[in-house]
Amino acid sequence: MQEVYSTKASHSVSQVESSKVLRNTYMLLGMTLAFSAVTAAISMAAGLGHGAGLIMSLVAMGLIWFVLPRTANSSTGLLVVFAFTGLIGAGLGPILNKYLSMTNGSTIIMQALGGTAVVFVSLSAYVLTTRKNFNFLGGFVAVGMILMLVIMLFLIGASFFGYQFSGLHLAFSAGIVLLMSALILYQTSEIIHGGESNYILATTSLYLSIINLFTSLLHLLGISSDE
User: Fold this and answer.
1) Angle at 38 between CA 76 and CA 127, to 5 degrees
2) Residue 222 burial (CB count, 10 A)
3) Quick one: which of 5, 61, 123, 170 is 20 to 30 A from 52 by CA?
4) How far is CA 15 from CA 19, 28, 67, 124, 199, in A?
5) Cα–chain-centroid distance for residue 128?
6) Cα separation of 208 and 196, whole Å?
7) Where are the alpha helices (DSSP H) in 101-137?
């Protein structure tokens, strides 16, 4: 009987901890997205070029690959996350300015923002409501990340030599939308089932999902606009 009570108590504590991680994750996610919006607006107003945007994006990726893993369990990790998201936001500035130069660019941006919000909220709500465990998607996400990285490097190399593969670009963007949707399901499930206890890492994962969803939808909508 005592073992049953102990198990129930342990489960209750686990749920409380998961709820705390989830709450902190969404709070930090909202703050970082707002910060990115501010840095993107500054970047757009300053008229930064694509070269500067690319450099800032590369620096941002360096932060989460090499710095964040060492600081995720300390307050320094918060500074790293804000530096990372700020750089990503600033790196989006030149891309957004390019779309705004199009005839229906502002509409495309709003549609991409709306689509991103619908996908994220819908998938998150589904996991939180059903509490279904999506840990089986871990392998799919890992393989998908590697595959998309290989395709991205190929496309960059091809464009450097003057080759354009519009069909592959389209498939790549569609694949990113699918992969980021799976990552949202997986990461949210990991949080509520105790698989992810670090809200800084959880925030970074969800933030990347949202940003990649947004940029991929921008690309898909831009292609469909025939501009």
Assistant:
1) 70
2) 19
3) 170
4) 6, 20, 30, 17, 15
5) 19
6) 16
7) 105-130
How many residues are recorded in the chain?
Answer: 227
Cα-Cα-Cα-Cα torsion 122, 220, 178, 189, nearest 10 degrees, comes to -40
Structure tokens of 4? 């049953």
Single-letter amino acid, residue 175: G
Cβ atoms of 204 and 68 within 8 Å: the answer is yes
**Residue appearing with tokens 């991680």:** 21
Average of per-residue pLDDT across 11-24: 80
Domain tally for the chain? 1
Enter the pTM of the model: 0.90
- Cα–Cα distances in Å, from 219 out to 95, 153, 189? 10, 17, 28
- State the residue for tokens 């342990």: 10
pLDDT in the model for residue 155:
79
Burial 160-190 (b: 16+ CB within 10 A, else e): eeeeeeeeebeebbebbbebbbbbbbbbbbb
Q: Are 28 and 81 in contact (CB under 8 A)?
A: yes
Q: Name residue 189's amino acid.
A: S
107's tokens: 């509409």
One-letter amino acid at 227 equals E
What residues have CB less than 8 Å from 205, skipping those under 6 apart?
183, 187
Instruction: Give the model's confidence band at 21: pLDDT under 50 very low, under 70 low, under 90 confident, else very high.
Output: very high
Structural domain that includes position 24:
2-224
